[in-house]
């Protein structure tokens, strides 16, 4: 990789530890094997880097032992973006992001078959939710992407069609979320013992009995958007767990993913289309028109 301007004057040690988040064990391997090169020359850990320097890291199998999973069906993958390190795909509703056990085939298995190498889940979508999902293509970049997610530097935006009209055009829900003791499949608002959850809601369009809303996640709790909207009296249409009269598909779609690529520092913005989500909107528009821009 090429050292960017904002890493200028950092030491090699600082880049490997703080920017690339390489684990201590792997850094030890790189150092003892002289597998870190700056402009094709092995350099000491305290060497200061200059913008434009070429940084080369060489890994052996003992650094990152190969992990194999069963390959799925590559034809089931709709690729939205791919480079040497990551791939973003458009998950259809009704498919799990990853299986519950090693033998269950899910999107992860299909994506791995698509790129012909084992991939790694960075974040997941509920089985009933469609849209953009990010995968790491190697174990080196996985912890870096996980850190971006934890630091809220990966923006995930969803569209949902909900019951009723919200009390304001823009809202922020911060209710804590915990497990439902009576139904292990479900979550509920539990402000005493639950985990902090934050969802930003903006109304995009209102209809006689429903609203189209945009949701931005600041945390990633299980069923977070579904629980928050349902708790405040606006369950998502088609939600089999949180809508009392669910019909059709869950009208929740992860339509946009935005972040800065940690190695190229380019802004990656991906939008995911969904024919079934658009069809669901048409069903509930009740004769009104909305322009879909995704």
UniProtKB/TrEMBL annotation:
What SUPFAM superfamilies does this protein map onto?
Answer: Pseudouridine synthase (SSF55120)
A GO molecular function annotation here is: catalytic activity, acting on RNA
Q: Where is the Pseudouridine synthase RsuA/RluA-like domain?
A: 85-231
- Does Nucleotide-binding show up as a keyword for this record? no
**Pfam families recorded:** PseudoU_synth_2
Q: Which UniProt keywords apply?
A: Isomerase
* EC number(s) stated in the UniProt entry for this protein: 5.4.99.-
Q: Which residues cross the membrane?
A: none
Enumerate the InterPro entries for this protein: PsdUridine_synth_cat_dom_sf, PsdUridine_synth_RluA-like_CS, PsdUridine_synth_RluC/D, PsdUridine_synth_RsuA/RluA, RluA_PseudoU_synthase
Q: Which residues form the active site?
A: 126
Q: Does the keyword Isomerase apply?
A: yes
Q: Which GO terms are recorded in the biological process aspect for this UniProt protein?
A: enzyme-directed rRNA pseudouridine synthesis
Reactions catalysed, as given in the entry: a uridine in RNA = a pseudouridine in RNA
What NCBIfam families does the database record attribute to this sequence? rluA_subfam
Provide the function of this protein: Responsible for synthesis of pseudouridine from uracil.
Spell out the family assignment given in the record's similarity comment.
Belongs to the pseudouridine synthase RluA family.
The name this protein carries in UniProt is: Pseudouridine synthase
Which organism does this record belong to? Streptococcus himalayensis
Q: What is the lineage of its organism?
A: Bacteria, Bacillati, Bacillota, Bacilli, Lactobacillales
């Amino acid at each position: 990789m090429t050292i960017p301007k904002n890493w200028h004057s950092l030491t090699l040690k600082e880049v490997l530890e703080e920017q690339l988040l390489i684990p201590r064990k792997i850094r030890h391997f790189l150092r003892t094997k002289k597998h870190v090169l700056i402009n094709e020359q092995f350099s000491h850990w305290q060497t200061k880097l200059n913008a434009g320097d070429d940084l080369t890291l060489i890994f052996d199998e003992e650094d990152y032992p190969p992990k194999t999973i069963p390959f799925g069906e590559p034809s089931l993958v709709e690729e939205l973006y791919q480079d040497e390190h990551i791939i973003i795909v458009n998950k259809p509703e009704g498919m799990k992001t990853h299986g519950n056990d090693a033998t269950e085939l899910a999107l992860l298995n299909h994506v791995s078959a698509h790129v012909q190498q084992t991939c790694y889940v960075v974040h997941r979508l509920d089985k009933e939710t469609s849209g953009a999902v990010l995968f790491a293509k190697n174990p080196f970049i996985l912890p870096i992407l996980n850190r971006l997610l934890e630091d809220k530097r990966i923006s995930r935006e969803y569209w949902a069609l909900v019951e009723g009209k919200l009390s304001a055009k823009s809202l922020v829900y911060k209710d804590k979320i915990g497990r439902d003791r009576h139904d292990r499949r479900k979550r509920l608002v539990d402000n005493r013992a639950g985990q902090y959850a934050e969802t930003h809601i903006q109304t995009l369009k209102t209809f006689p009995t429903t609203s189209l809303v945009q949701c931005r996640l600041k945390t990633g709790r299980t069923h977070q958007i579904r629980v928050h909207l349902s708790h405040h009296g606006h369950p998502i249409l088609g939600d089999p767990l949180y809508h009392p009269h669910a019909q059709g598909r869950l009208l929740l779609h992860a339509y946009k993913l935005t972040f800065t690529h940690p190695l190229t520092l380019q802004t990656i913005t991906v939008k995911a289309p969904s024919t079934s989500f658009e069809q669901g909107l048409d069903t509930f528009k009740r004769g009104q028109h909305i322009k879909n821009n995704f």
